[in-house]
Amino acid sequence: RQLNPIMTELTAEMDKNIRSKWVVGDWVEVYSKSRDQWFPAKIIEIYDDDDGEWLAVVVENTMIKEVQRFTEDVRPLISNDDDDDSEAEVESSEDDGDSDDSESLSYSEDDEDEKEKLERKRKKAAKKLSKHHEMVVIFVERTGSTMFNGKYVYSTTTEEGYPIFEHVDNKHLLIKQNEEELRWEFSSKQQVYYYADSDQEFPPSSGWTKTKLGDLPNPGVRLDSIKKQEADDNFFEDDPYKFSPFLIMKYKFEKVKSEPLGFDLQILSLHQQFVAVKSIKPESQAENFGILPGDILVSANGTDLSKMKSIKEVSSTIEQIIKSLAEEHKEISITFAREKKMFKVMICQRAGSKVVNGKYSIQGKENDALMFANNENVNLKIMRIYVNEEEDEAIWALREVDIHAKDSKKKPKIKKKHKKTGGNESDSESSASSEENHRDYYIVLASAKEEVPPECAWEAVDPHGLWPAAGLQYYDVKVIPPSKPIIVRCQPNPNAVQIRYECDEAGRKPKVCPHMEVWYEIEMRHYKYNMEKGKTSKKPHDTKIWKTDESPFVANRLVNGDDYEFIVRSCNHIASTNSETSQRVTPLQLPPKPKIIDITGKPGELYVHFHCPNAKDREIQAKFEIIVDPPINEEHQDYEIKEHRLLVDNDNKPVRLRNLINGCKYQIIVASVNTVGVTYSEPESAFPSKEPPQPLLKKVEAGNREIIVHFDCAGYDKPDIRAWFEIELDPPPPSIDQAGILVNADGTLQDIDSKGSGDDEKTAQHNRQKSRMRTKLARKSRWRRQTMSQKLLMGGSIGGMPIGAQLSNMSSPRMGAQPGGILGKMGFGADKAGGAGVAAPIDEEKTGTGGKSLAQLAEIDADDFVPYYRRSTRHHGTPIKISPVVNGISYIVRVKAVTLSGSKISAFSEAIVPKGPPPIPKINKLIPLESSVEIDFVCNDYATEEYKATFDVESFPQTVTMKSIPASPYAFPKLNNGRAYKFHVRGVNKEGRSKWSEVSAPVTPLKIPPQPIELRCVAYDQEITVFWVCEELKTPEYSGWYEVESDPPTFTMVVTRSQARFRRLTNGKKYTFKVTAVNQVGKSTSDTSHPCVPDDEIKKEEYNRAKKYIACEVKEILLKIRKEQKKQRAHEKLVKLKATQTQQQKKDSKQKQAAYEKVIAKKQKKKKAQENKRKKEEQERLEKKKKMDEQRQRVMQNKRRMSFLAKERINNMDAKFPGRAGGKNQNTALAMMSGKKKKGKMGGSKKSTPKSSVNAAAPLLSAAEISKLDKLRDSDENQKRTSKKTKLSSNNSNASNASSGSRSSSRGSPRKSKNTKAKGSKKKGKVEKQVD
């Protein structure tokens, strides 16, 4: 809440004293929670109840609010000059009755009647004025704040009689009168942009001043009428102002079929062309009637002839009328008009009231008759006050008018205090005095056909007219034409022409008629432009006449591109004089604003490319001027020069500026000029120069969202070069408003999060995101005056296809980087071989749009268009910092040295990857919710998915820190309603953390208010008190209030307790009520109450008793509801507890089952492991045996082979040494042993072997020995095998005993295995018990 600076200086005692003195009618300030603002309010009632002393105050005359006297929701209002005005908004009558009855406010019926009468008078006057205001249209042009340009129509009329005009396209744009400061204002949503000090009925056309919100230039206002101001159907009979200069004559021609009419015709040019009599034939009917040359033909048998402009047309019309006559009717009536040469001046004499005597002359018209004014006292008039043409009666009066004019001017505004009695009499007297603002002296009855009053038969009018009655005497005075006006200048404007003229004011009215009304008439002749023939017609297409009082005059609603002629006519009631016809003038549209789209050059030369849409249209017809500062050498230029400006006809080719100084800076402006005005382009600066030197790249450093480039370029800053540098990145950097967004090469948007990290990451293309302001500015042009063709180009469709659709199908490559880009298409950016990008000028003459496509025209027409040569960022030295770039993307860099004459570029650098922590976030907005707060923050994080930031949010007072928040907005949960919290945010990524953001403003989450129920109403005399049942909203968890509305609507009561009192209701009328519980989080509306009817027969004691009873009943209902809610909460808590216990039991049982299954699974796993181990050992044994058998077989084979070899050697030795015994080796131990040789077990006698077998190989061991050894070996192996089997069987028996023991223990058997007891631990025992 905003503190009152004066109230902060008051002590508590002073504040208490001020509050205790508040009475009904005092002004205070009350606080509105919904608007968070203090409002002035007036105390209309003070009353006491059980809750203390309450003040009922009225706010903004639409809302009644109840506040307690000593609370913070109300404070004293510092008095100012507006107190009198504020008191007028809400008036309460003084209570003349019982002073003790403080709970009622009564208004007297007389006061209400008087108020209603004044209101009706205001409404009636406003309605009468509104009919006049409805006919006015306002056109606003050339305003700096372009939203105010356009057409305004009538909206409403204020009580003071001022009209309010609103924009036809935006109802919030108003032109209205500030009645307090007496000035007209341009306003939008209560904010003033322009004002002009004036208290006139309509806004002025000039003299406007801008405020801080408005932009120059100030608006130009033009008033026009909806009614088409055309010449009247019958000039001579219907127009009262042009009736008096002519004498109307009507003649009846007989025997027209046998005798001629007797006159010839001619064209007579007065204020317009008429067909008149040229000559009279002798002894004809025309001569007999006295018709004279120059008499104008007005009508024939009721057919209007005054509008016909040719003699042939009038002659044929009269012939047709004569032919159509029947044989028995051979008459034709022709009406002529003759200019008067004399006019009447009268003298009033012999009147008893001497004040009316004197000379009277023509002043004007009243009731379709001449009105005469006294030459000495203009308020004394002779006029026709009543006319009845059916009965041919008219009443003339000699009257004094405006008798209370001086009194009404000096009369101050006095606030009337009406009494209960005598109010009707005062009203009748005031109304009678206001109606009779004149004084009649004499009246006379005359014929309705008479144009002037009769000379006699006047009668005196009591009490002012005295006998004898007045007598009038007429004198004829010669008509002297008014002085001739001279047209000084006709200035064309958009759809208008301003005509300035001069005229001798002294000669405009006769000297004998000092009060005669005079005026000017402006006649316009329109020559239409023929599109087929391509020229303007010779004859006028139409004419129009305006009436005006002063110079200059603006003729509106003209057609741009057509020719017009004007005649100024000085008029009075008896004659008129025409000026000379002006030269033809052509209104045109203001020329559109040209744009310099590019500047290219060569050494000593510059080429200016500009564009001005629709400049050569018929309604514009603009030419161009090139303004150069400092002035250039004018000798060798290609264009005509006037006043140091180059004159150019078209914008379809560049303008070459020659003989320039290299390195000299030139400022260039293009002006679009026609007869209406001049529009200038934005100034652009450029300098011719030589080609730049070659840059060399030294070092490139990567930072956090930035890249720093170091390079060398010798001689780039010479005066005749002055090169700048441009940095090219691949991929291009993102735009500032593109944080977190990438744009693919095909123009589709892609989040950085969705970008892959593959091999194509280096080649991914960025395009600058289109500016979001472009679409806004394209709709509201700031400086341009759009023609219809421009509007078609800006917002319509071209070639059956919307421009937006055409632009969306086109990519936006870097300007000048590709031959197919926009610069390449326009011929501005074609690079030469060798790296020098000299832009080739356009030398060919082009027609139409200058060779530009629709997309290029739309781009150039945008308000945020930047010339091509300035689009790239220019740097003027080393090192260069490029920011922002996207963290995590690989970039390559090169440097380009540029001048307008060419460019040179370095090689690409090695790839670098910027990386770093995220920037500091910023909290934008906090929205309180129920038990939470929505936090809206921003963080311009340019990063890929790998380096993308998440966010941490902390609260004060601290709760749980929320981490890894992906994006904004975020709803911070689990907060306590009614408690204020502050927040701050930081960003986190793999490179680190940012600093915490600034701590936000405090915000308080609240509960949504409950719905009010049980609405009860208690009626009284013009009063109803409403009660309802609802929780207390003043608690911190709600911090709300109640809004009570009635149907039919009266006031909206804003209260903080559960009752509201409506006063000043209508007895006998049914009222229903609705209560809405409101806070900053939401609101809840009750159902509609039962109808309640206030009645004046209800006693106050019964009313108070009923209120107390209902209040007690409402409190009991609330306590009962709270008790039921408490019981319901306890029941819900018990149900929740039982559900929790059931859930816990299920959880425990699941855990036990899981433990049992775990033990069984473990045992099965162990058994399976043992089985697998046994199988593995068996497999290993079999493989080992197989290997041993294979080894044995190899050994035996080797032994046999060795024995064969040994035997062969022995046999060979025996052959050498025949003395040895055959087949015996004497070197062996067996051979050396003594004794008998053992016989073999082969049995039988030894057979003699043949001699041939002596040398045969004999085995080393006998077959018996070999078989014996095999048996021994087999027995040993069988013994080993049986021992291993016994070991395995014993182990298996132990395992089976353990499993059987566990099963027996689970079944409750007393027998247990000793092995299981030995192996089982205490922990396993516990698990087994849980399984049991």
Please give the alpha-carbon distance between the first and last residues: 72 Å
Uncertain spans, ≥5 residues at pLDDT below 50?
Answer: 80-112, 227-244, 409-434, 740-848, 1234-1258, 1298-1332
Strand composition percent = 25-35%
Described by strand count, sense and barrel closure, the largest sheet is:
9 strands, mixed
Number of beta-strand segments: 69
Shape estimate: extended
Quick structural gist:
The chain is α+β, with helices and mostly antiparallel strands and 1332 residues long. β2 (37-49) and β3 form a beta hairpin. The chain is extended, with a radius of gyration of 58 Å.
What does the model show?
There is one protein chain. The chain has 1332 residues and is of the alpha+beta class. Helix content is 22%, strand content 30%. It is built from 17 helices and 69 strands. The strands form 17 sheets. A nine-stranded mixed beta sheet has the order 5-1-2-3-4-66-65-68-69. The radius of gyration is 58 Å and the shape is extended. Mean pLDDT is 76; it is low at 80-112, 227-244, 409-434, 740-848, 1234-1258 and 1298-1332.
